[in-house]
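From the pipeline queue, job 12 of 40. The input is one protein chain; the requested action is below.

Action: predict structure.
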Amino acid sequence: MAKKLTLDIDTDIDFELIGICSHLVDYRLVWDLNKVLDFHFERGENYCVYDKYGKVDSEHSLYQYTDKEDKTVVFLVKNKQDGKFLISEKSSIDYFLFIYENYIVEIEDLKKKIKKANSVLGVYPLNPLEIKSAKNIELI
C-alpha cells in the first residue's frame, strides 16, 4: 500500500482585513469613506476570481488608495457580485478593506473613523489567517 503524503504550505498573508456592512452601492460607500478617512480611493479594474479551469468565475468591484508617504496600500472590494462571493465564509459582509504594507495605521482608529460614515452599518476587524479563502486573494 502506498503511503499518502501531504504537502503543507505556509501561506504568507501580508495584509490586514476589515469587513464592512453597508446598504449602499460601492461608489456611494467610497464617497463616504473618502470623506471620513481622508482617503482618495480610485476605481480600479474588477478583481477576478477564476475557477479551476482558469475561466473567470466572478468579478468584484475594486477601489484602491495608496498613501505614498506612509507606504500603505488600501483596497476596498465588494464581496457579493452577481450572486457570487469573494470570501464565501463571510457572506454577511458587503465589502472588504484590505490594508497592505501597514506601518502606521492603527486598525482600531480606522474602525472608529469608518463607523462615522452614515452609510456604514457595521465594521468588523477580521483575522485573514482564520479565513480559508482569504489566503487565495492577491491584490498586490
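Job complete. Residues 15-127 form a domain with the Double Stranded RNA Binding Domain fold (CATH 3.30.160).
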